[in-house]
Amino acid sequence: MTSIKLNDISHRRFNPFTNSWVLLASLNKNNRPRQGRKEASAFGGRQAHDPQCYLYPGNQRANGVRNPNYADTFLFENDYSTMRMDEGRCDTKACEKHLLRDTAADLMRAEAVIGRCYVLTYSVNHHHGVSNMTCQQVLGVVEAWTETSTSMKCHEMDSRLESSLDIASRRYMQIFDNNGEIVGCSNAHPYSQIWITSSIPDEPQLEHSQMNKYHDEHHGRHMLQDYVELEIEREERIILLLPKRQIRGLVDLNTTERLEFARAILQIARIYDNLFGTTWPYISAIHQAPLDATEAELKTSYLHAHFSSPLLSPSIKKFFGGYELYGEPTREITPEFTAACLRHSAAQLTVPLQDSTATDVRI
Ligand SMILES: [Zn+2]
Ligand SMILES: [Zn+2]
Prior knowledge:
The protein is of the alpha+beta class and 363 residues long. Helix content is 29%, strand content 15%. Belongs to the galactose-1-phosphate uridylyltransferase type 1 family.
């Protein structure tokens, strides 16, 4: 009987983080001729200085406010915030009563979400993606995220923030970065978004439930700690950027660890740019403990960062179709193959980090 290796056939991989499965397509699919859309110019790098850019120091934004003459990072409230505070508190119960008939109460649920959306620019340089920044500049971004986390946990808001936000409405702080036109970024200037919401978003909530379940089923062991040990032992792949020991959030990183975190983000950006031979479009997000974490949430929270690429190759975008939307997510390449490509790219990197002597990104 011929033995078949897992990677030679289509198969599913379990994602314990979200209690869901991902379908890995068979090699056949990768070899099929592609006649669909090819991206040629969408990743042609960043535009050089744009004097009209509304994120540039001194320029006026859509709401008429003029940016200060900042030198590094600059934090401000998004002029087109998805959530607002000034519309008055929504009475969820009243909304539900209005929306629902008695028998539909379990089926047609809705709840109000209030919060604020902020923007954090990384640099005054319009064309500076993370991969072009120095380690000290990325560290400045990590420190700005950390300071924002700290101020969101306090009753007194940070003076850098333009509007007040009731502490009771600060349940979760989601940091994310849509980098590149292809992932819907509306401005090429390097920046991340910080959304503060009165509820925990679904994805970190689901991850937390799974980590909690693992903790209970594995005699108090932490799922991500076990994961990082396993991945390091196998040296086969990497799925996340995460500390080797449990750290609940950005505010718990010490000075050295913040620098290491910045260095790892910079290194990943450079490895991806080198792999694709161009400025890498990506989506990244940081998950950490909720702002007003309960004891149970603190017990299992584990700081980590996700990085996703919308590309299958420099010229082919990954689309989400019917199976992904209504079946389950699919991938054309295995995590082992992806990690091998990234390792190869890392080995080719010739530009050293400008202000550090060593890199410690293990792939
Ligand atoms: Zn700009
Ligand atoms: Zn996560």
